[in-house]
Amino acid sequence: MKKLLLILLVAGLALLVAGCGDDKKQPASKTENRKKVVLIMKTLTNPFFVAMEQGARRAEKEFGVELSVKTAAKETSIEQQVALVEDAIRDKVDAIVIAPASSKDLVPALKKAQDAGIKVVVIDVALDPDVVKTVGMQPAPFVSVDNEEGAYLAAKVMANQVRGPVQAVILQGIMEAANAQARYNGALKAFNENPNITVVAAESAHWKIDEAKEVTAGLFAKYPGIKLIFACNDMMALGAIQYLDEAGKKDVNVGGYDAIDDALKMMKEGKLGVTVDQKPDEQGYTGVRYAVEMMKGQTPPPVTMLPVEIITVDKLK
């Protein structure tokens, strides 16, 4: 009996020692096996990008990837975005989904990512095709909306309400970004189709509330008769509205772009006439989905244009 107990004791100790062996022999955890995707955006100070992250998080859960979200301090922090791409290369992530702050300046860094074997998907703002070709980058799948069409349709709502001669201005975004140029083109086209509208100025407020307030004040100092303001994003529209409220101007029609909650609140209060829902959550979701497809060896469509929705107060009722 004593010999049997001794044998069992030795066997148990052997199993215990085996169980405490080299960790490398243990099976990898589910987290370690998950593909790593980084979403690089311009900022999280704009609710548009908060919604974009929410869509990406939905895809993270659905497709079982490990998603990290990186943002620059401001939408104008182009060099910081470049650094975030370089960080992702150093961290050896599997895929980058990026909403670039510049259509040109991010291309060399993204080329380096591709060279490192990282899959790249571009959302929201298209890369400049000439720069892509010049640096030898492979075209990346692009997910966005037709920004020119969205701005045209929104500004057309404003233009259709004009019956007599009026002055109009356009608040532009960061003009190095393709979406900013497209929105400006769309709004200008819509205003120019009504002979009663004269576009007296277009000036960049770099997507920012405070800067838009200052720019709007300066524009009214030069053109006190302005009756139409199309802002190429809602943040700038909110800045323009702040100026109008403080100046006591109640007869100016303001349009925006993005359909963020604060803009919809202004619309309900009668201070914003129109905005554009460009589905940021769907852009984030689709970007991550395409990254997953690429990691599986599949080829997503080169360009995916999601439908825009024009929002007026009637649709909020």
Structure explained in plain terms:
With 317 residues, the protein is of the alpha/beta class. The protein folds into 2 domains: 30-144 and 279-304, Rossmann fold (3-Layer(aba) Sandwich); 147-277, Response regulator (Rossmann fold). It has 13 helices and 12 strands. It has helices at 2-19, 30-33, 47-63, 78-90, 107-115, 129-135, 147-159, 178-192, 209-222, 234-247, 261-268, 280-295, 313-316, and strands at 36-41, 66-71, 95-98, 119-123, 142-145, 166-172, 197-204, 226-231, 253-255, 275-277, 303-306, 309-311. The protein has a 6-stranded parallel beta sheet, sandwiched between helices. Strands 7-6-8-9 form a 4-stranded parallel beta sheet, with helices on both faces. Strand 4 (119-123), helix 6 (129-135) and strand 5 (142-145) form a beta-alpha-beta unit. Helix 4 packs parallel to helix 5 (107-115). The chain is elongated and about 60 Å long. The N and C termini lie far apart (86 Å). The model is unreliable at 1-30 (pLDDT under 50).
